[in-house]
Amino acid sequence: MRALFDALTPKQARIAALLRLEGGLDLTITCREYYHVRDMLDRYAVGYRCIGRYGETPYEKLVEGLRRQLELAELVKDLDGVLSFPSPDAVRVAFGLGKKSVVLNDTPHAYHANSLTIPLSEYLIAPAAIPEEAWRPYCPRRVAVFDGLFEYMWVSRHRPDVETVRRLGLEPGRYVVFRPEEAKAAYYRWNNVELRRRLVDLARGLGYTVVNVPRYDDQIIEGAINLTKAVDHLDLAYYAAAVITGGMTMATEAALLGTPALSYFPEGLYVDTYLEMKGAPLHRCRDVDGCAAELRRALDEGRKPAIRLEDPVKLIVDIARAVF
What we know:
Elements: E1 2-7, H1 10-21, E2 26-33, H2 37-44, E3 49-53, H3 58-76, E4 81-84, H4 88-96, E5 100-104, H5 111-115, E6 123-127, H6 132-135, E7 143-146, H7 152-155, H8 163-166, E8 175-179, H9 193-205, E9 209-212, E10 225-226, H10 233-238, E11 242-245, H11 249-257, E12 261-263, H12 270-278, E13 282-284, H13 288-301, H14 313-323
Parallel strand pairs: 1-2, 1-4, 2-3, 4-5, 5-6, 6-7, 8-9, 8-11, 9-10, 11-12, 12-13
Helix pairs in contact: 1-2, 3-4, 9-13
């Protein structure tokens, strides 16, 4: 089988690389210009082709997507189909060419991308933490689940290297990592700039160095260590006092590593609930006062032992080989 994997985020880049290198799948990996995606693929030393860029406004998302589809069509026409996280461009191209798609997904709240991909796919592969009814609005044909999280694929293989953080001039346990929210995603309708600023001030006031991993240029934090090129985020999280994020992936990675993680994503996330149930140090909050209190509690409690989950690599590989 030969399939396309359209990696649109650093997380998806990791998954694509691991499925090729350890899963043995023959994947053509594509990406688009977006913070850290190229860097992450380069870290795994896998071949890839970046096509187009990330559209920030609804109009840009539409136009950039249409442009990407023209180039993706030239690749997918010679492949068996698409295996990917929800990529409206890749799945639309596969559908138009009469090819099959398998979608990996852990974000039922991403309404726009899910609506354009899951109904056109043969299979949806998702964590069992997400109930089947959460996917029902997208009419999946078949759903396969595993008792784990996608992030476990690389966290479980990680061996910490303290030199990664020391090369940045950081002292283990004396810094806090910030990963701002995905503010320009189609589904994101909140403004958490002030909440993030207050948490940055609190971390500094408690004597911690602030390390920021921005998604966009306007999320640079003045006076912080801003990482606009990818370093090993797992080392960064492992040796941090805490990881604070308005998204999901870096909080999940940190919690799986045993590092206190604070998520201020405005809605409840099934993945967060699952991690808390498993005993990982995942903390949730929504407003300034609640987040300040929760950050102090997370820092006071400190690290916890890493938890063990099901690795989904075999399930993904088996389904891909059966479908294509």
